[in-house]
Specification:
Elements lengths: L3 H9 L11 H10 L1 H15 L18 H8 L5 H8 L9 H21 L3
Helix pairs in contact: 1-6, 3-6, 4-6
């Protein structure tokens, strides 16, 4: 089992995944709302978009823009069940447990924290 830091370091080696960065506007939004609010949004998005065994529009359910957590979901390969399967071997066709959801949220939050520390780059 890999750690969050190991997962984030592995993602940095992907040209596609490493191309995602928070914009100035997204960083300002995150600063204004705070990390606890972002965590709450992440929990809601993961529960709605990833947790069901067969999510609606799987593979297209997570927008690329519009919210810092959406950006984090793509950057961390937590945007759809196909990416979760490819990157983390999370089986398709089974509802995510609360523990699995918590791990995804923790990864999303770690990516957001790194982005805030590095200024989005």
């Amino acid at each position: 089992m890999q750690t969050i830091d190991q997962a984030l370091d592995k993602l940095e080696h992907s040209t596609f995944r490493s191309s995602f960065h928070l914009t100035k506007k997204e960083r300002a939004y995150l600063s204004e709302k705070g990390m606890e609010c972002m965590k709450s949004h992440a929990e809601d998005f993961v529960r709605q978009k990833l947790a069901p065994a067969d999510p609606v529009n799987d593979g297209k359910q997570t927008p690329m823009h519009g919210h810092p957590v959406f950006k984090a979901m793509h950057a961390t390969a937590c945007c759809c069940r196909g990416c979760l399967n490819k990157w983390y071997r999370v089986p398709k066709g089974k509802e995510l447990t609360e523990e699995e959801q918590r791990k995804i949220v923790n990864l999303l939050m770690a990516w957001l924290e790194r982005q805030m520390k590095t200024g989005g780059s």
